[in-house]
Design brief:
Blueprint: E1 2-5, E2 25-29, E3 35-46, E4 49-56, E5 70-75, E6 84-86, H1 91-117
Antiparallel strand pairs: 1-2, 2-3, 3-4, 4-5, 5-6
Length: about 120
């Protein structure tokens, strides 16, 4: 279960150099019913499916430096329903989604370097 806040579906890129430009936040409810607040870093496609990259926040509401980026399948039901996130059970699908996120970050980093040179 996930509660989305401030989700801008039209934006889908994470600016690696500026953590302020995130898409909003989501509260994940884990299997033990605990909740984890996460920043939405990116909503992107890989192999024709949508995925979402999340960064858990610490107790102070700041990004947790010790946390890994979490990647889930993203399902948008349109304006009438909240989007959903689903676990990725297949290792190959997860690897493809993780590789696509890495490429997104690499592209953003390359674009930032080009802007600095100008």
């Amino acid at each position: 279960m996930a509660d989305f806040e401030n989700l801008n579906a039209g934006e889908d890129e994470f600016d690696a150099s500026d953590m302020e430009e995130v898409l909003g936040s989501v509260t994940l409810t884990l299997e033990d019913d605990s909740e984890v607040e996460c920043l939405i870093l990116a909503i992107y496609q890989a192999n024709g499916k949508d995925y979402i990259a999340l960064l858990p926040l610490g107790a102070d509401g700041e990004p947790d430096d010790d946390s890994d980026v979490l990647i889930y399948r993203y399902v948008d039901h349109g304006e009438d329903e909240d989007p959903e996130i689903e676990n990725i059970e297949d290792d190959e699908e997860y690897e493809a989604a993780a590789d696509a996120f890495d490429e997104l970050l690499d592209e953003q980093e390359f674009d930032d370097e080009e802007e600095e040179e100008e």
